[in-house]
Design brief:
Length: 519
């Protein structure tokens, strides 16, 4: 029995990380907007009401399905490191120097311009209202601010906005962001280019420089949204689409290809043998990511090579009956805090979108007078000069951000994703197996107990797994550590299933503030 009911609708459905964002997306659909309009409306509200997770100073990745052409388009709204980058031996815990060029606003604008009907001004309307008039602080935001007070208090702008009374806001108190509202109005009036060229861009560049950051007006002007070909694999007869690099979407797709060689459906959800197989396959895919993944504009990395049948077969053979400690990467043949949302409209257009400032409140540095909270995505680079993801000027870091879309032939069937940094492709792996192999309802799949693996043989399990499961996994060599019953570290997933008859089913994660609604 699910903790929450599945949301079902026939005309449109939005599942996002906050109920106000879901309401904004739903209002856009009711006004005749497309899935793209609704997705940007919801994403913009998230950037106001979930500052611990996202901001217009962050990044976004999206997959869009066009019901007319039956094609999937990938949007990579991630920015690069500053061109004038000083040597860094160690990343500090906060500060404007940690920011890469914000790509979120450009991607929103491109998504609405190419796939929308209402325009960016309409898409930003609800976000402007919540920034200007304020919104009631949730218990989760109160906890996030309290947990980040040391970082936030060291930035005058962050302290002024997020600690307006000199103390952590209480749940239910109104939080206003007038500078952010003014910036959003400028973007709605002029367009997304305002953040990258012109007076606003100059103010942003000057503010970043004054705060010790490296992003210049030239860096902003050079930014463009990428539209790379989405990655695609076949899994159990379905077409699974993922984000191409610099997203780590290829990790999920490699996990699924590895998993296809095993009869996962023969094991019930939560079966220790199923968990063991999936965890060990995850370790293989992560090892390949760490060894090979980097910005394809700067290093030679073709993620599709990870999907080569011979490569997959060679990796699959390494699965053992005992938990592995260290896993080596395969040899290729030669030739990120966050929020996720999903939207489908009545015509069947669909968007799977994820955006982030990386850490809680990103860099904890705000551009004075703009309300723009900067990301700390620079820390997504490796400081090992031999890594394909090594820090370099003008280069984009590898992102944990990834969104998923599943088609049956040319018709969309599933949209899902989750925040959670390194947990993202692990939780998405668990969701994919639950939804595809076991045929679970979206809300039931979201609410299943989850596992989470970081390194070595330590395997973290949510406390709802029974004692017998824990003992069986320990007998296989896993060092089991318990999380809470509903552990936020495993993500905060949203999902939409599209029935062949045309109805929509939505689910949202009780681990965070997710909310699904339709009409």
């Amino acid at each position: 029995m699910a903790h929450r009911p599945t949301v079902r609708a026939a005309n449109g459905l939005v599942a996002s990380g906050h109920h106000l964002a879901t309401s904004a997306g739903l209002a856009a659909l009711r006004d005749g907007g497309s899935a793209a309009d609704a997705a940007v409306a919801a994403a913009a509200v998230c950037a106001v009401v979930l500052p611990q997770a996202t901001s217009i100073g962050g990044d976004v990745f999206a997959l869009h399905y066009d019901a007319g052409t039956r094609e999937v388009t990938a949007y990579n709204g991630s920015g690069a490191a500053p061109r004038e980058l000083p040597p860094i031996e160690r990343f500090p815990d906060r500060g404007a120097m940690l920011a890469t060029v914000p790509g979120c606003v450009a991607a929103w604008g491109d998504l609405v311009a190419e796939q929308g009907r209402l325009g960016l001004d309409r898409a930003l309307a609800a976000a402007i209202g919540y920034a200007d008039q304020g919104f009631p602080v949730s218990e989760q935001l109160t906890d996030a601010i309290a947990g980040s007070r040391d970082r936030l208090d060291r930035d005058l702008e962050c302290a002024r906005i997020y600690v307006p009374r000199g103390r952590t806001p209480l749940a239910g108190e109104m939080l206003q962001q007038p500078d952010l509202a003014a910036t959003l109005r400028e973007l709605a009036s002029i367009g997304p280019e305002a953040l990258y060229t012109g007076p606003l861009a100059d103010r942003v560049a000057r503010g970043i420089a004054a705060a010790g950051g490296g992003i210049t007006a030239g860096d902003l002007a050079e930014h463009r949204t990428d539209r790379p070909e989405p990655l695609e694999i076949r899994y159990r007869g379905l077409r699974v689409f993922g984000q191409p690099p610099v997203s780590q979407g290829h990790v999920l797709l490699e996990e699924l290809l590895l998993a296809e060689g095993f009869p996962l459906a023969e094991h019930a959800p939560g079966d220790p043998e199923l968990i063991h197989v999936m965890v060990e396959l995850k370790k293989l895919a992560f090892a390949d990511r760490d060894a090979h993944a980097g910005d394809p504009r700067r290093v030679e990395f073709d993620a599709a090579r990870l999907f080569d049948p011979a490569f997959i077969a060679s990796r699959r053979k390494l699965l053992g009956s005992r938990a592995s400690d260290r896993v080596s990467a395969g040899v290729l043949a030669t030739p990120a805090h966050t929020t996720y949302l999903a939207v489908v409209d009545r015509e069947g257009n669909a968007v799977s979108l994820i955006e982030s400032v990386f850490s809680h409140f990103g860099s904890a540095a705000m551009v004075p007078g703009t309300g723009i909270l900067l990301n700390d995505r620079l820390t997504g680079f490796s400081l090992d000069p031999l890594s394909p993801n090594a820090l370099a000027p003008g280069k984009r870091p590898v992102h944990t951000l990834n969104a998923v879309m599943v088609l049956d032939g040319t018709s969309p069937r599933l949209l899902f994703g989750t925040p959670g940094r390194q947990a993202q492709v692990q939780t998405n792996f668990q969701l994919a197996v639950s939804l595809i192999d076991h045929g679970l309802d979206v809300q039931d799949a979201i609410e299943l107990p989850r596992w989470f693996h970081e390194s070595g043989r330590t395997l973290r399990l949510e406390g709802r797994y029974p004692e017998g499961t824990r003992r069986a996994l320990a007998a296989k060599g896993h060092e089991v550590a318990l999380l809470g019953d509903w552990a936020e570290v495993t993500g905060g997933a949203q999902a939409i299933a599209i029935d062949q008859g045309g109805g929509f089913a939505g689910g949202a994660d009780p681990r965070r503030e997710g909310h699904a609604a339709g009409y």
